[in-house]
Amino acid sequence: MSNENDLASAGPAPARANAPDGQTATGPVILRAEGIRRVFGSGGGAVTALDGVDLTIREGTITALVGRSGSGKTTLLNILCALDDPTQGRVWWGDRELTAMSARQKNALRRREIGIVFQSYGLMPLMSAYENVEFGLRVAGIRGGRERAERALEWVGMKERMKHRPTELSGGEQQRVAIARAIAHEPRLLIADEPTAELDSRMGLQIIRVFRDLVRRLNTTIVLTTHDPGIMELVDQVIALEDGKIVEHAEPVPSRY
């Protein structure tokens, strides 16, 4: 398990700025990537997943990474949350270089400051919704698990269903539990890989509303991947990838919802 010394040695994240209710923060830069290149394999079989990616993500915003399958979206997500290292390039977490941290420092940073929602819900089938969330906190060595778990489930509208097992929940409800598990420790950064891929448009919109509420409530920064054009209208910036390169960077005006 990580400890406070590990996290301290990983360097401080930028101080949180309180965003006005209903507005998006334009606070300090929480993530910055420069010249990111990721190559898998070697020689004639080498595959370049990312090729010279530069980006900046500010605290308290929602960023959508879009592009076809194989464009590099998931690879970029993994590098931004320190699950993978670039072949070349650098990533900064606040004012500290993430790519220069040790494996132990990265683990501590993820457990304390980053939440991750994967495409598959990854819930323990024999555990209730509450137990799934509380178990994640125990694994991370975070105190106050019961209160934190119940609070996170309340944030995503699942407190009344917290005693139900995954098989007793709909796909949207399972995704909400997965999000609750990822945010129970109140991370500064939430990474979500295709969080609405298995949901219909109505449930997908509800998940984005949950994300918006997290930004307002905790000033959490969210980076997600999506193929859903409707979601692209509800975020603060859209970064389009093609063949491992950024081909478009837009800042849409969020729709009312």
What does this structure look like?
With 257 residues, the chain is an alpha/beta fold. The chain has a single domain, classed as Rossmann fold. The protein is built from eight helices and ten strands. The strands form two sheets. A six-stranded mixed beta sheet has the order 6-7-8-3-9-10, with helices on both faces. A four-stranded antiparallel beta sheet has the order 2-1-4-5, with helices on one face. The protein is globular, with a radius of gyration of 18 Å. The N and C termini lie far apart (41 Å). The N terminus is likely disordered.
- The percent range for strand residues is 15-25%
Unreliable parts: 1-25
Q: Please state the overall shape, judged from the principal axes of the Cα atoms.
A: globular
Helix content: 25-40%
- CATH superfamily label: P-loop containing nucleotide triphosphate hydrolases
The name CATH uses for the topology is Rossmann fold
Largest sheet: 6 strands, mixed
* pLDDT averaged over residues: 85
Radius of gyration computed on alpha carbons: 18 Å
> Mind telling me the CATH class?
Alpha Beta
Number of domains: 1
Task: Compute the number of strand runs.
Answer: 10
Number of helices: 8
Q: Give the termini distance in whole angstroms.
A: 41 Å
Class per helix and strand makeup: alpha/beta
CATH architecture: 3-Layer(aba) Sandwich
Strand order of the largest sheet: 6-7-8-3-9-10
Assembly form of the protein: single chain
Question: What order do the SSEs take from the amino end to the carboxyl end, as H and E?
Answer: HEEEHEEHEHHHEHEHEE
